[in-house]
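Q: My labmate handed me this sequence with no annotations at all. I'd like to see what the chain might look like in three dimensions before we decide whether it's worth expressing. Could you predict it?
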Amino acid sequence: MAIYETFSKRQKRLAKAGQQDVYQYDDLPQPFRTQVFHIWRSALGRYYQPRGYSSASPSPANGYWTFIHNAIAREAGLAYLGNGNSEVDERCIEYLMTSGTDDALNIIELSFRVIDRLVRDKYNYIPENSGITQHPDEAIEELNHRFKEHSIGYQYVEGILVRLDSQFAHAEIVKPALSLLNSAG
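A: Here is what I predict for the chain of 185 residues:
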């Protein structure tokens, strides 16, 4: 999915030109959360439960959403996320939109791990009716762009959210260390 540079975004970027990146870690603004929700919709698809005696099969996205919901609910010590009367994807979205920063980061990290690993494995075989329209690489790239756009000091790298204390430290210390940790031997 293309990221559009609107007039207001361009003005902010120009105003910050030449200044050092300053990140914040304690707040995930509502526009950022909403952008994550839009990435989810295009990269995970919609939860679909056929009603009645329909011969339609459930969307392959159902398994992704159910896994995310159940894992986060279990880890948070909750019976279910959000409104128990909604579909699973809507509960995850409600949780993202209303939870505290740490809980929101938990569901973002897990959902992007699902996109990165599970959706990627089946991406070429996912039927069109699943609602999955964004390649996992594009979804991760967009998430990382949104973090930077909102000056939120995190990036999704190799399956985890990494805190960026500075671009230099991240490039010179964190990335090489992650490479070493993930290499054989």
